Amino acid sequence: MDVLVIGDSNIDIFVKAEKEPEQDKESHAEINYCAGGNAMNFALAASSFGLDTSLVTVFSTDAMGDFLSKEAVRFGLDISHSRHQEGKTGITIIRLLGSGKKSYLSDKGISSTIKSSDVTASVLRKAKLVYLGGYQHLPGLEEGMSEVMKGVRENDVRVALDLAWDETGRWLKAVEDLLPHVNIIFGNRKEYESLFSCTLEGAIESLQGYNQNMIIVVKKASEGSEAYHEGKVLRCAAKKVKAEDETGCGDTFNAGFIWAYLNDKDIKSCLSAGNLVGTSVVQKLGSCHGLPSREELQKI
Fold first, then answer.
1. Are 113 and 105 in contact, with CB atoms under 8 Å apart?
2. What CA–CA distance (Å, rounded) separates 300 from 285?
3. Architecture category of domain 3-9+38-61+111-294 in CATH
4. Report field, pTM of the whole predicted structure over 0.90
């Protein structure tokens, strides 16, 4: 197994309208849906790129949970280590207005019940890399996860953590026990600054204090990306494209980066792969509809 992904899964529903509807009146909107969730987005993309990927999440037995399971199969994603139980599938509603305004309404649903005990030692030992997605949205993972990570490091399995916007405001408290075990961390400027309540430069220095060999990846949207590692800063510009929707671009960027990393590419090439995926996905509605082909990635 190349990657064991641990985290959330849900349905993304896109509501695209020219303007806000008037109160008590029906308005036309273009409505679409697809698989979503930080971990699910990453896992589907990684699997489509040819990485042997397994997802640990919690699926509902309702119709939407069945849809997510079928999407996993369609992408070649292994979900045999995920849990299926009664409850409602999580939903995120993304409202897109012609003015450019965007808003999110989210209910994590059954995937929020995932626990560190759902991750078995035997499965962890099979992976080359463990990826944590949506971790700050999943309080059940926090208890016991640092012990799980110790076992991961003892078996020379690498760990990647994607920061998510922490609406609870806990930030560092939620992830601090994990940081000494993390090899690669992904985030944007606001997330890093919020993590340590300081500047980006200060946050980078603080992270290096937990693990001096950590690769710290900063996603900068249309400006590209950069990585801090062993005293060096590597930057990679992104191709300019017309953005349709940015939902899931960060998660799929991470999948491109990890694909290159596990294929022994240098860090600059890993950034290039991430940028390629992000700029491809942003041109379509939904996180996995605009993914580049394996052949395109191979050209990196």
1. no
2. 25
3. 3-Layer(aba) Sandwich (3.40)
4. yes
